[in-house]
Specification:
The chain is of the alpha+beta class. It contains 8 helices and 15 strands. Strand 14 and strand 15 (349-356) form a beta hairpin.
């Protein structure tokens, strides 16, 4: 079977930094619109202790999600040293399309993948561009689809992008809004004759019986603002339910992927988990290793959430790119290392990939 490898990565980290202290004057409210009893200083302190987030990045107002995706894609193409005209598929993972600053209206026509193809000025009509909506695990799912295209001889080179501007779909009165950020990550996937590297296995799941609406759209918590009486909707989540769901299900999906790969747990060098919540990620990795009755190795899980926040589909490709480029202290990948990519998010969807460099 044709082996499938990542030949280039790229990321775009927005230039606007918003630190936790900048939320001090925000009017945080409860779900029913009543004021939260704690002071903002206490709210922010608790938030930092749970999520690990100290600051996050927001995109400049003139840049849309498709623009961020293009900037990350351009770097991935340069890193892989491929001719854009030879790309067979562009798969763009996102959740909300292009949302202009102060608009809250999603723009999905044409697809963001088509917009990236346009920005790259690719003339080849056989380069097929489409979007994927799969929650935060969207980029990993795009990589899984790219593998399927290549192994079935439908494609040889695939560009997979994950980008989001979550800062434009959050309710400023919801303290959960502090979690979210903007960003983009991308990679080039190609076929390879080297049977000793590439994607070894993967696992994907969707839980929708009771879990479908753990993340959803709803009105602002500011029930008394006349300007908010319109049908404007914002991203909302049942945080506790998501936390418990992730702890109960993500480790099992990770195990399913690893077991299919034939790789032993002690051979795993790095685990790149969706940067949603530091405490949640730590609990997931602990439960994962507990399934094998093993302690968690030191330094196994690189993290970027402290400075970049949760940029949904962009967290895993951005984190991978940062480590590959040597931009995270004491974190690196060597030739022959086996890593895992894993994510959980709206759907509720879970996936994982085992990959050997």
């Amino acid at each position: 079977m044709t082996n499938v490898i990542i030949t280039g990565t790229g990321a775009y980290i927005p230039s606007i930094t918003k630190k936790n202290v900048q939320f001090t004057d925000t009017n945080f409210l409860n779900v029913d619109g009543t004021p939260i009893k704690d002071t903002n200083e206490v709210i922010i302190e608790k938030f930092k202790a749970i999520t690990g987030i100290e600051e996050r990045r927001y995109a400049k107002k003139e840049l849309n999600t498709s623009d961020l995706g293009f900037l990350a894609a351009k770097k991935a193409i340069e890193d892989a040293e491929v001719n854009p005209e030879e790309i067979d598929y562009i798969i763009f993972a996102h959740n909300f399309g292009n949302v202009k600053t102060n608009s809250n209206q999603s723009d999905l026509l044409p697809s963001l993948a088509t917009r990236v193809k346009n920005l790259l000025q690719i003339e080849n009509p056989n380069c097929v561009a489409y979007d994927i909506l799969f929650g935060c695990p969207g980029w990993i799912q795009g990589v899984i689809q790219a593998q399927a295209f290549i192994q079935s001889k439908i494609a040889k080179k695939v560009l997979v992008i994950g980008a989001e501007t979550l800062s434009r779909v959050i309710d400023e009165h919801d303290r959960d809004s502090m979690i979210y950020s903007d960003g983009a990550g991308a990679c080039i996937i190609e076929s390879s004759e080297n049977n000793n590297s590439g994607i070894l296995s993967h696992a994907s799941q969707t839980f929708a019986k009771n879990e479908a609406y753990y993340l959803f759209f709803d009105s602002s918590y500011n029930k008394y603002n006349k300007e908010d009486e319109s049908e404007v909707q914002y991203m909302k989540m049942h945080g506790r339910k998501i936390y418990e769901f992730a702890l109960n299900n993500v480790p099992n999906a990770m195990k399913a992927a690893l077991d299919k790969s034939g790789i032993e747990i002690n051979e795993l060098k790095k685990v790149f988990i969706h940067q949603a919540n530091e405490k949640m990620d730590e609990a997931i990795i602990k439960r994962f290793y507990k399934l094998y009755s093993k302690p968690v190795p030191e330094g196994i899980m690189p993290m970027s959430i402290h400075k970049l926040g949760n940029s949904s589909v962009a967290t895993v490709p951005t984190l991978l790119n940062l480590v590959l480029k040597g931009e995270i202290e004491n974190q690196h990948i060597e030739k022959g290392d086996v890593i895992m990519l894993a994510s959980v998010g709206s759907g509720m969807n879970i996936n994982a990939i085992v990959y050997k460099y």
